[in-house]
């Protein structure tokens, strides 16, 4: 740049030098612009593009892969975010990114102590609220997904990440689904997960003496893969009971689940065009399911 500035004052030939400099600058700006656009778009085989936002924190602290339409208090932890609904004393959704890199990391020891989440302004439920209730403290963000880091593991044991689950569900099909999702994250390199309880049904019972915790009628899990070669999405709604059917039988489109819950799960992560493509339907053949794990659930896990 110093040489260019010097040439601007040499008299004869300065105009041509200035023109060359302007042309050079415009060319550089065009290249930068093209690289930026490409970094925000995935090019399809037919030459078309589908825009995706780069997952990161915005100025407000919101993350691009979080649902919209929430009624609770959004709380950000280091490794996941949630929307806590005081009326139900639990999160209506928990959202995070799961990667092959985190799954390949050496597992830390599983935490043993459940802790109240004091980042929730109204205070979360306490460990004792579940005691002698007949329900387990069911992780929405599984400890197995957070085993890559000591902080992540400790965060997964916040009571804001818990929902009342029957043991036959927690040790059965819910366990199978969690392990299956880890397989998908490993195979696909990166997926986005949103999990939560179904709290939209009427006449739901509660547990807890100090804090009244709603017992969900079912639980859902949404998985989105926006990376090549196959971008896809799927949702599951698992009834809160002993389940004998294969996981595939509980699958549904993301759009159908959004219609029931009133959320827009990935509004800021993918464009409306991409949502229409990925969320409106699902192809069960795009997702590999473990027959061995299903047999283990039916033959053993359901009776633990």
Q: How is this structure best described in words?
A:
- The protein has 304 residues and is an alpha+beta fold.
- It has 2 domains: 38 residues; 252 residues, Extracellular Endonuclease, subunit A (Extracellular Endonuclease, Chain A, 3-Layer(aba) Sandwich), CATH 3.40.570.10.
- The N and C termini lie far apart (72 Å).
Please give a quick description of this structure:
This protein is an alpha+beta fold and 304 residues long.
Q: Characterize the main sheet.
A: 7 strands, antiparallel
Tally of alpha and pi helices: 9
Shape: globular
What structural category characterises the helix and strand content?
Answer: alpha+beta
Helix-strand sequence = HHEEEEEHEHEHHEEEEEEHHH
Mean of all residue-level pLDDT scores: 85
CATH architecture of the largest domain: 3-Layer(aba) Sandwich
Strand content: 15-25%
Secondary structure: helix percent: 25-40%
Taking pLDDT < 50 over at least 5 consecutive residues as the criterion, the unreliable ranges are: 1-15, 34-61
Q: Within the largest sheet, what's the order of strands?
A: 3-4-5-8-11-12-13
Radius of gyration: 24 Å
């Amino acid at each position: 740049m110093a040489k260019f500035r010097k040439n601007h004052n040499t008299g004869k030939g300065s105009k041509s030098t200035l023109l060359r400099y302007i042309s050079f600058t415009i060319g550089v700006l065009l290249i930068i612009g093209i690289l930026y656009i490409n970094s925000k778009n995935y090019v399809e085989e037919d030459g078309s593009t589908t825009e995706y936002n780069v997952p990161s924190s915005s100025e407000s602290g919101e993350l691009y892969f979080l649902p919209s339409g929430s009624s609770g208090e959004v709380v950000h932890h280091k490794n996941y975010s949630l929307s806590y609904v005081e009326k139900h004393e639990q999160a209506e959704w928990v959202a995070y990114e799961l990667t092959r890199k985190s799954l390949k990391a050496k597992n830390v020891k599983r935490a043993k102590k459940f802790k109240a989440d004091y980042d929730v302004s109204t205070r979360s439920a306490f460990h004792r609220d579940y005691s002698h209730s007949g329900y387990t403290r069911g992780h929405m963000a599984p400890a197995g997904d957070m085993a890559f880091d000591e902080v992540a593991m400790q965060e997964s044991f916040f009571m804001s990440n818990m929902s009342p689950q029957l043991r036959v569900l927690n040790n059965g099909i819910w366990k199978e689904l969690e392990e299956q999702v880890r397989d998908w994250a490993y195979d696909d390199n990166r997926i986005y997960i949103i999990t939560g309880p179904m709290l939209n049904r009427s006449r739901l019972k509660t547990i807890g003496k100090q804090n009244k915790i709603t017992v969900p009628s079912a639980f859902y899990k949404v998985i989105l893969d926006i990376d090549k070669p196959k971008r896809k999405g799927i949702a599951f709604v698992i009834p809160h009971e002993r389940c004998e059917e294969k996981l595939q039988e509980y699958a549904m489109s993301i759009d159908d689940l959004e219609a029931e819950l009133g959320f827009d799960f990935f509004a800021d992560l993918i464009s409306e065009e991409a949502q229409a493509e990925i969320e409106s339907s699902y192809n069960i053949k795009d997702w590999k399911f473990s027959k061995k794990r299903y047999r283990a659930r039916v033959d053993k896990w359901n009776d633990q």
